[in-house]
């Protein structure tokens, strides 16, 4: 059975299918000891409070947004979580030395079984609700963030409805051979992650994914954009041949890895890497990165259950700065919201998260997140050529406010006698508003970097993750090109650098257009660097 979708990350792979469990969490231990009973009863109580708190907040958010009916479901779930009968059944099991997570799942199953046999359809459906709620309490007890992806212990092809960055962040290195998702486009985060990890991916295969979930083996061609369930021997042989050919193609580009790319007219174009963690720095240098055009710091925040401290951030930024030496490293401040949730930060659910509280908006409202990041960057700047960039800027006021916070952090560190370095400030041009106001923004910025992924989505009003809008998910559109031109003209007039760090920067067919429009730097997934240098050299 063959499924077609969007080829999101080149390469072919064949391997066992892995379908992340959507069922509840697995208890890590079944039993506890006598001495643990009191503490475990307390932990259970706290887990119920935490889950009920989250549920009622979600309900309130929905009500405020006018979705009263959905909010009612959450109210009902809160009642279930706080049900005294459920609590006493679980507590009794804990007193009988069952672990609280095993106990709450077992009681949940008992309740669900009672509901499931009821005649009325409405009541029978409550079985799922009770499983959902007790599953959440168990997950809370096991530790936030426990996810099915940690269970991936054999290299496999991952099949999933969608993959959030926090999901991919949890997959252990080497365990994902390929990704196949029902949702997504070339610029959704699963695609970006797949490209930088060098993992073949087919996204946006649609509901057909259901039909291959039971497959034992899955083959993926992330270049052509298809997946085959239980491929026959001939298909596997053909894919192996293709894999060999691809490796040869890549080897042929090797000579471009470390060239400094210029056009035939002598226009020098810097080719840099997009990275998501300090551990990618060395790899990026190997591919020939002349700097980091975009360090997405949100992955630093998402791979874990608590926020990273200022010192941890300092270490991560310093590691990249040191690895790159004099080469520039552009670090983007936290850009969560939209499709990037952050465990540990209270992001109320929003009707339109892509038009919501994200990027610089969230940072400016959350100094406890923003300031430690800026302090860490100022300190790390002493170890290399760091620059800071603000995401989702829509007007000069936001840039001024962000720079003012940076200035305060600088003063604070100076008065503490802490060593800091120079830190140039730049803006991501990824809202149409920023492109239109590029002239004003340029007066207060040391550089621009155009985020075509979001710029396309906001200009063309086309959700970057919606597989049905493929036609519009394209930077090669007159409206987008006009905004890029306007941005480049403003930057060139002000004498500042203008890069592109959206996915278009690594697409060989877009590179000539971007260079022609006046872009001076291209930043992309590291494995795309040699091909991009070749494309520039041929202009
Ligand atoms: C962009 O929007 O083009 C971009 C590079 O940022 P992200 O993909 O992280 O939203
Ligand atoms: Mg963006």
What is the multimeric organization of the chains shown? Answer: single chain
Range of strand content: 5-15%
* Structural class estimated from helices and strands: alpha/beta
What's the story with the biggest beta sheet?
Answer: 8 strands, mixed
pLDDT under 50 segments (min length 5)?
none
| Ligands bound, unique | phosphoenolpyruvate, magnesium ion
Amount of helix: 40-55%
DSSP summary, beta strand count: 16
Q: Record the strand order, biggest sheet.
A: 1-8-7-3-4-5-6-2
**What's the rounded overall pLDDT mean?**
89
Compute the separation of the termini in Å. Answer: 42 Å
Cα-atom Rg, whole angstroms? 25 Å
The best one-word shape is globular
Number of helices: 21
How is this structure best described in words?
This protein is an alpha/beta fold and 539 residues long. Helix content is 46%, strand content 14%. The chain contains 21 helices and 16 strands. The chain has helices spanning 37-64, 68-81, 84-95, 100-116, 121-124, 126-142, 165-170, 189-197, 233-252, 281-287, 298-302, 310-324, 360-365, 367-380, 396-415, 432-436, 438-443, 452-459, 478-494, 511-517, 529-537, and strands at residues 2-4, 6-9, 12-18, 156-160, 176-181, 201-203, 217-221, 226-229, 270-275, 292-296, 328-332, 385-390, 424-429, 447-450, 497-500, 521-525. The chain has an 8-stranded mixed β-sheet. α14 crosses α15. The protein is globular, with a radius of gyration of 25 Å. The two termini are 42 Å apart. It binds phosphoenolpyruvate and magnesium ion.
